[in-house]
Specification:
The complex is a heterodimer of chains A (382) and B (285). Chain A is of the alpha+beta class and 382 residues long. Chain A has two domains: 156 residues, P-loop containing nucleotide triphosphate hydrolases (Rossmann fold); 123 residues, RNA polymerase II/Efflux pump adaptor protein, barrel-sandwich hybrid domain (OB fold (Dihydrolipoamide Acetyltransferase, E2P), Beta Barrel), CATH 2.40.50. Chain A has a six-stranded mixed sheet, with helices on both faces. In chain A, strands 13-12-11-14-20 form a five-stranded antiparallel sheet. A five-stranded antiparallel sheet of chain A has the order 15-19-16-17-18, with no helix packed on it. In chain A, a hairpin with a 2-residue loop joins strand 4 and strand 5. By secondary structure, chain B is mainly alpha-helical. In chain B, strands 1-2 form a two-stranded antiparallel ribbon. Classes of the chains: A alpha+beta (382), B mainly alpha (285). At the A-B interface, strand 6 and helix 2 of A face helix 8 and helix 9 of B. Chain A: It comes from Sedimentitalea nanhaiensis. Chain A: This is Spermidine/putrescine transport system ATP-binding protein.
Chain lengths: 382, 285
């Protein structure tokens, strides 16, 4: 299956699969002067799927997108859309369209002219354009707004018009460059669901880039986590969340308690690590071959930890810590507490939603525990 | 607090009002009265339209009037055609220091006076000038060539003088066009030409119109360039006004000419605005 090369993190994913791919990037590299923005990235996107590239700003995800759209030429490597190489094909001749970060709707045109722009360029007859524009507006749930101006629309409506403007051209691949970034939180949550529904309705391959992990996790079929110009891991949201391949992925996707420690005991698959503060944590190696005395990074999800009033309730866990509540972080269903243990380490713990601990106060003694399988360890790099 | 704000408002308004009333309203009222006055005898005047009658009755005046208008329109068009790519390059393609350096280069000619600048063209274009000498040296012509004192030389001078006034509004409007909008045009299948026609030019329209209005008015009211670079056949309407006021001492007719020029420029500017669907508020705001 997937494998990670120690040097450059190259993924050979999708080849095992006989399903048709819409977009294939092979050994894509882009250098700007001395800096390498994208280093030897290969991936394939299956037809009709929602593929996200998730990474912090400056990781090279925009560069990949601009290369696919045709605004940048790769330094080396190949981009294939439906099997055809796109090298030296100008952006206006590629079967891909892009939804820009700030949408880039044409302010000098009304909605119908915006959506009809690409069709006019393709030389379609006027009545056909009007019919197609009407149809696509129907599909995005905004019928009859042809003659409105761009600035008369709300943020969410603009979003849908920007997608319609691309979809009316029936592209093989639709690229989306953080299109939800400019929206407020409520609308963003709503648009996530809507985008996913639109993608299913149009049955087109979406390639979505974002730095917002929840956007990627909610919408995508496949996610590539990118950092420093390379793909750290490609997989479904669940894989990235529960089985991260690298320390970066473990830290970037979702929240984690994070420690640095050294391996103190090693017995086959089980190891025990001592953190800098002195907390002893047992863990499974998950085949990562950690040896005695080696430095490691330890990740533990707050929701993997069980809270109890009585230490006896946690007997089944191999990690048990007693401490006091040092902070209450109330956030409705996602409420958490910070527990300070005897050695002074602070551990973030998600409270169960049963309301059993709703009356917990600051300074109250609690017991926490978790199974060794829930911690993820990575050997220190370098 | 309110009173203070009001006082500040009037204090700021005063210079503007003074400027408007003293330099524009009063002289123009005087000019209007002057143009409607006819000298019937020594020191005797009567109110009549006779000066305007003279203007419409004399073919030279009418001819010069129309020629000046046509040439100014042409100068505006040439300036626009040259300034547009220059502005596009400065606003959209040049980056950082290059951008400001190029912008400054457009400004540099305006550090010397218009007179000296025009003399510069004379040095280049006259019979014993640089171009003539170069052409002879290259063996392309046998004798010295006179390139001054014709319509082409005058047009070069007019375009050169007006360049900055076209570039500044164009750069400003083009800079406000988001690069992503241009890219979206290409992404959706547009060619360079269609992106220019459907996206860049409509966006730049307020800049194009305001630049054109300024350049047109400057050309129409220019006196120095047509006088120095234009020949005997390239009579400019401002030269007629000058000669009526200063040479012939016929202020009445000069005032009438001045009013005709004002009406002409107003009509052409109004017509252009109507034609392009722009408003003065939109282009100047």
């Amino acid at each position: 299956m997937r494998h990670l090369q120690p040097c450059g993190c190259r993924f050979l994913w999708g080849k095992r699969n006989t399903m048709t791919t819409d977009l294939d990037c092979n050994n894509l590299t882009k250098r700007f002067g001395d800096t390498t923005a994208v280093r030897d990235v290969s991936f394939s996107v299956q037809q009709g799927s929602f593929f996200s590239i998730l990474g912090p700003s400056g990781c090279g995800k925009t560069t990949i997108m601009r290369m696919v759209a045709g605004f940048l030429e790769p330094t080396s490597g190949d981009i294939r859309i439906k099997g055809k190489s796109m090298l030296n094909v100008p952006p206006n001749k590629r079967p891909v369209n892009m939804v820009f970060q700030h949408l880039a709707l044409f302010p000098m045109m009304n909605i119908a002219d915006n959506i009809g722009y690409g069709l006019r360029r393709a030389g379609m007859a006027k009545p056909d354009i009007a019919r197609k524009v009407g149809e696509v507006l129907e599909r995005i749930g905004l019928p009859g707004i042809e003659h409105r101006k761009i600035d008369e629309l709300s943020g969410g409506q603009k979003q849908r018009v920007a997608i319609a403007r691309c979809m009316v051209l029936e592209p093989d691949v639709l690229l989306l460059d953080e299109p939800l970034g400019a929206l407020d939180l409520k609308l963003r949550e709503h648009m996530k669901i809507e985008l996913k529904a639109l993608q299913a309705a149009f049955d087109t391959t979406f390639v979505y880039i974002t730095h917002d992990q929840s956007e990627a996790l909610v919408m995508s079929d496949q996610i590539a986590v990118m950092n420093g110009g390379v793909f750290e891991q490609v997989g479904a949201a669940r894989d990235l969340y529960y089985r991260p391949d690298t320390a970066f992925v473990a830290g970037f996707v979702g929240d984690s308690n994070r420690w640095r420690g050294t391996v103190e005991q090693a017995e086959g698959e089980r190891i025990a690590l001592r953190t800098a503060e002195g907390l002893l944590i047992t863990s499974a190696t998950q085949g990562r071959g950690l040896v005695l005395g080696q430095g490691a990074e330890i990740f533990l999800r707050p929701e993997a930890i069980r809270v109890a009033h009585d230490a006896a309730d946690l007997a089944q866990f191999d990690n048990r810590v007693s401490g006091v509540v040092s902070s209450l972080l109330f956030n409705g269903a996602a409420s958490r507490i910070l527990v300070r243990d005897e050695v002074g380490e602070e551990i973030e713990v998600t409270l169960p939603q049963s309301g059993e601990f709703a009356n917990l106060t600051k300074g109250a003694p609690v017991h926490i525990g978790w199974a060794g399988d829930q911690t993820t360890c990575f050997a220190d790099r370098g | 607090m309110r009173n203070q704000a009001r006082l500040g408002f009037y204090l700021l308004l005063t210079p503007l009002l003074l400027w408007l009333i003293l330099l524009i309203v009063i002289p123009h009222i005087d000019m209007a009265l002057l143009s409607l006055r006819e000298r019937v005898g020594v020191g005797k005047y009567a109110t009549s339209m006779a000066n305007y009658g003279t203007f419409f009755g004399e073919p030279l005046y009418m001819w010069t009037f129309l020629r000046t208008a046509m040439m100014s329109v042409l100068a505006t068009l040439i300036t626009l055609i040259i300034a547009f790519p220059v502005s596009y390059y400065i606003a959209k393609m040049a980056r950082g220091r290059t951008q400001s350096a190029l912008f400054l280069l457009c400004l540099v000619p305006f550090w010397v006076s218009e007179l000296v600048r025009t003399f510069g063209w004379m040095i280049l274009l006259r019979e014993t000038g640089l171009f003539s000498t170069l052409l002879q040296w290259a063996g392309l012509v046998d004798g010295p060539v006179e390139m001054l004192y014709n319509d082409a030389a005058m047009m070069v001078g007019l375009v050169y003088t007006s360049m900055l006034f076209m570039v500044v509004p164009l750069v400003t409007t083009l800079e406000s066009l988001d690069d992503a909008v241009i890219e979206a045009g290409y992404d959706l299948g547009g060619s360079g030409f269609s992106v220019l026609r459907e996206i860049v030019i409509p966006h730049a329209m307020p800049g194009i119109v305001s630049g054109s209005i300024v350049v047109f008015m400057l050309s129409l009211g220019n006196y120095l360039t047509p006088t120095m670079l234009g020949g005997k056949d390239s009579l400019w309407f401002t030269e007629l006004i000058y000669s009526q006021f200063i040479v012939r001492f016929n202020w009445e007719l000069g005032a009438a000419f001045g009013f005709m020029l004002l009406i002409l420029s107003s009509v052409i500017v109004w017509g252009t605005l109507r034609l392009t669907g722009q408003t003065l508020e939109k282009t100047m705001g």
